[in-house]
What we know:
The chain is α+β, with helices and mostly antiparallel strands. The protein has helices spanning about 25-40, 125-140, 150-170, 180-190, and strands at about 45, 55-60, 70-80, 85-90, 100-105, 105-110, 120-125.
Amino acid sequence: xxxxxxxxxxxxxxxxxxxxxxxxxxxxxxxxxxxxxxxxxxxxxxxxxxxxxxxxxxxxxxxxxxxxxxxxxxxxxxxxxxxxxxxxxxxxxxxxxxxxxxxxxxxxxxxxxxxxxxxxxxxxxxxxxxxxxxxxxxxxxxxxxxxxxxxxxxxxxxxxxxxxxxxxxxxxxxxxxxxxxxxxxxxxxxxxxx
Length: 194
Ligand code: ZN
């Protein structure tokens, strides 16, 4: 499983709700945790690995040795946001790019857990920031969409480089073109969202 880089269109896709918890979904969750640890992430949204569905995994410690910090979110909704805090963020889909992002300091988030139960958390600071970042992904919003003009200006060159890389990969057949991405999205939605 490979983490997809900006500006692959699946990262701009508004993911659809999951309709069934089955072995296919459990296998995907395991693969996502594996990929997240392998790439040094603390959270990973399904569309970052090409699945257009409302699912993300996180472990704020980023350590496979601390499974007690693992969370799986299926069809998450942020019910409440409180306060504001600016802190630096990066993203596995934007390798090497870091910027300050303003987020709610405290959130209340509800979702379905992998065992099918409803889970609700009141989180603040780091956990709240990661969960907001991942929920954004599922709505097709990336952290660079939340930057002010100045921060965006600072990373503009890096974003252009990612764009050029992606276009080169598509031309060479190393990355799917928009048509192929859309076809794959439709196939996966049939499997997970119908
Ligand atoms: Zn991200």
